[in-house]
Amino acid sequence: AQRVTQPEKLLSVFKGAPVELKCNYSYSGSPELFWYVQYSRQRLQLLLRHISRESIKGFTADLNKGETSFHLKKPFAQEEDSAMYYCALGWGNQFYFGTGTSLTVIP
Amino acid sequence: NAGVTQTPKFQVLKTGQSMTLQCAQDMNHEYMSWYRQDPGMGLRLIHYSVGAGITDQGEVPNGYNVSRSTTEDFPLRLLSAAPSQTSVYFCASSYSIFGDTEAFFGQGTRLTVV
């Protein structure tokens, strides 16, 4: 069975501070992992995917197979980063989402 | 570009009523899926489709039916609505099932069953 855990429902940081959103997964095979973001009144959209090893809007995420983690990090949080973040495991049309972390960046 | 379009945006149903949530995409994506979003539970997969005529169940399929007669459309049917189906429903589509793909989501349908 696949499972994604995001332990923090709410996270608040000050502008300019580093931010880390935690994600742990449980999967028996080789996982495909993603971070999706939902800004206020907008639809869910892809932030980044582990296979691309990319940095989007200053966010990065490293897949740690030993710790089965895919934490999302940004060195300096911005107010526009305030949103709901979902970690997801899966592939094209089947995603298993975590419960989400609501990030608030305090000015 | 329209992308993934869901209708309606809001709906109130009485217990026992039936309705269809519409989802259409104009990107010629083969893969489509339906999720429900509930507080504290994230998004959960209801049904998915890998192409016209092919559908399968996700995590929480009970109470919902789907069909895929065309590539563009993937409607979700509630045959007899229950208060437990009060939720926000999202439709998504993608062009591949591989890890380098991206799922595109609709804007959601907020359904209340009273």
Give the end-to-end Cα distance of chain B, rounded to a whole number of Å.
35 Å
Whole-number radius of gyration of chain B? 13 Å
SSE pattern of chain A: EEEEEEEEEEE
Number of strands of chain A: 11
Tally of helical runs of chain B: 0
Beta fraction of the residues of chain B?
over 45%
Name the shape of chain A in a single word. globular
* Largest sheet geometry of chain A: 6 strands, mixed
Radius of gyration of chain A: 13 Å
Which terms summarize this structure?
heterodimer, A: 107 residues, mainly beta, Immunoglobulin-like, 6-stranded mixed beta sheet, 3-stranded antiparallel beta sheet, 46% strand, B: mainly beta, globular
Describe this structure as you would to a colleague:
- The complex is a heterodimer of chains A (107) and B (114).
- Chain A is an all-beta fold and 107 residues long.
- Chain A has one domain (4-106): Immunoglobulins (Immunoglobulin-like).
- Chain A is built from no helices and eleven strands.
- Chain A has strands at 3-5, 10-14, 19-21, 24-26, 33-38, 45-49, 60-61, 72-74, 83-91, 94-97, 101-106.
- In chain A, the strands form three sheets. In chain A, strands 2, 5, 6, 9, 10 and 11 form a six-stranded mixed β-sheet that branches.
- Chain A is globular and about 40 Å long.
- Chain B has 114 residues and is mainly beta.
- In chain B, the strands form two sheets. In chain B, strands 2, 4, 5, 6, 9, 10 and 11 form a seven-stranded mixed β-sheet that branches. In chain B, strands 1-3-8-7 form a four-stranded antiparallel β-sheet, with no helix packed on it.
- Chain B is globular.
- The model of chain B has no long low-confidence stretch (mean pLDDT 92).
- Chain A binds chain B through residues 6, 9, 32, 36, 43-46, 49-52, 86, 91-100, and chain B through 31-33, 35, 40-45, 48-50, 58-59, 90, 92-103, 105-108.
